[in-house]
Design a protein that fits this description.
Strand order of the largest sheet: 1-2
Radius of gyration: 29 Å
Low-confidence stretches: 1-14, 30-39
Largest sheet: 2 strands, antiparallel
Shape: elongated
Strand content: under 5%
Distance between the termini: 21 Å
Structural class: mainly alpha
Mean pLDDT: 84
Length: about 500
């Protein structure tokens, strides 16, 4: 290939191993970048029936006097309805950032709210928890930090009997966890991981989905690899997560999406992926991939792409682990079925969410990188042409498609013979006309592999005006010497 040096461009002699090494280094850098892209967010849980009942009620900004009045009524009102109504009014006000700021500045306000949260009256408890939930959703760190005294009580209530109340506590904890290291520091020694592990056995889907959200927030903490994920891996959570991702009539999309992201964050930490693999993560995710491919063919249901993304990422990252090879990870994925399913998903994503195409192609790259059998499947299922159709989507997609083709070509002459010429020749000529240097560079890597293994490729390339295509790029114009040398080798070797 080519490298810029002082005094101009000089050809570098690159064999198959050198090309493979360069690609693996680039992929390692990409994996690191992908691991660092986290999905930190907050959720707001509001009762639909309450929302409808309160339709038309504008959330007002309250001052200190009004907040004190609501808190006084909630504490000492003569009737339960009056006390509950005061908290409802306060909750509406806390939807406004200005009221939130006033509330946390007011001395004793959080203490009063925590007192109501721990009262023996269920309706007051629920409304106090809803007020805390509104505060937890704030984008202001001071508001979140003010909720710290309530977190241990929220954790305690996860072992309660009301699924609605547990769900609310989980979403509130999830919002607080992601925002505040102080909250995490307090909750970890108090046993948040065992508490979440107990919740995962709940029969209620709403609780499971909320649990997945709270756990995913916890797993995204910067200190998670050292202080959180080892505890999670040492609990029953991973086995239960994998059970909830098992395909079948009990699989729930919302729950599966949350726990697939949890699994993704654990895998990205690289704390102990070998454990997940021995617990069956590869086979479970492989079966889920097959199930997803079937689902996108049966239904137009929006949202399947939300599950496809973390599943593709989990599989891609697990396949790079040495432990995956040790347990025959490639064999667990049942070559042809997985490749066929992956292409069904690629077509689905092309229509529904093109931005997720790189996720599927990244998995295809990792499947074909060290596996002749997956490369054979790609050829035997006639999937090279559909793969080439993706070249027009974007430069990022083009590079990944070309990388997959390089994986196939580097397997040797028999594979190159199946690739060349076919539609690949005209596609490569088009790629060489691109202005993106990475696309052109990957195209040249593929050409070099083809020239090395398929002696007639260089001559065919020249006959199709390939040389003129190369000359349009000043930075690779000197490749003509390399092409001529390879042509001579093909003719006389």
């Amino acid at each position: 290939m080519w490298s810029r040096q002082r005094g101009g461009l000089k050809p570098l002699r690159c064999g198959v191993e050198q090309l493979r090494c360069r690609r693996r280094e680039r992929e390692a850098a990409l994996r690191k970048a992908r691991r660092e892209q986290q999905l930190v967010s907050k959720r707001l849980l509001r009762d639909e029936a309450l929302e409808e009942a309160e339709e038309g009620c504008v959330a007002m900004i309250f001052g200190e006097a009004e907040i004190q009045q609501f808190l006084r009524l909630a504490q000492r009102g003569t009737e339960e309805k009056e006390r509950e109504g005061a908290l409802v009014s306060l909750r509406r006000g806390l939807q406004r950032p200005e009221t939130q700021q006033t509330f946390i500045r007011l001395e004793g306000s959080i203490r009063t709210l925590v007192g109501l949260l721990t009262s023996n009256q269920a309706l007051l408890q629920l409304e106090a928890a809803r007020c805390l939930h509104e505060l937890s959703h704030s984008e202001q760190s001071a508001v979140v930090e003010a909720c710290l005294p309530a977190t241990s009580y929220l954790l305690t209530y996860l072992s309660g009997h009301s699924s609605d109340f547990i769900e609310l506590c989980l979403y509130t904890l999830g919002n607080l966890i992601v925002e505040s290291e102080a909250v995490r520091r307090q909750l970890l020694p108090q046993g948040i991981v065992p508490a979440l592990a107990a919740c995962i056995q709940s029969p209620h889907l709403t609780v499971l989905e909320a649990l997945g959200y709270a756990l995913s927030q916890l797993l995204q903490a910067k200190e998670a690899p050292e202080k959180i994920i080892p505890s999670v891996l040492g609990s029953t959570l991973p086995q239960h997560m994998l059970q909830l991702l098992q395909p079948g009539p009990k699989l729930n999309l919302g729950v599966a999406v949350e726990f697939a992201w949890c699994l993704h964050y654990i895998i990205c930490s690289q704390v102990n992926n070998a454990l997940l693999i021995t617990q069956g993560a590869l086979s479970t995710l492989g079966l889920l991939l097959l199930d997803l491919a079937g689902a996108v063919q049966r239904t137009e249901d929006a949202g399947l792409e939300l599950l496809a993304c973390p599943v593709l990422r989990c599989l891609s990252n697990l396949l790079t682990e040495a432990a995956a090879e040790a347990v025959g990870g490639q064999l667990q994925l049942r070559d042809e079925r997985v490749v066929a399913a992956l292409f069904i998903l690629l077509q689905f994503l092309l229509q529904k969410q093109p931005s997720l195409l790189p996720e599927g192609l990244w998995l295809l790259n990792n499947l074909t990188a060290n596996s002749p059998s997956f490369c054979t499947s790609l050829l035997s299922l006639d999937l090279i042409e559909p793969l080439l159709h993706l070249l027009s989507v974007s430069n990022v997609v083009s590079v990944l498609v070309l990388t997959v083709l390089c994986n196939v070509a580097e397997k040797g002459p028999a594979y190159c013979q199946r690739l060349w010429p076919g539609p690949l020749l005209s596609s490569l000529l088009d790629m060489l006309a691109f202005s993106d240097t990475e696309v052109v560079g990957q195209s040249l890597e593929l050409l070099q592999l083809l020239f090395l293994y398929q002696p007639g490729a260089a001559q065919a390339f020249l006959q199709q005006s390939g040389l003129q295509a190369l000359q349009r790029h000043e930075e690779v114009a000197q490749l003509q010497d390399r092409v001529h040398a390879l042509q001579q080798t093909a003719l006389h070797g």
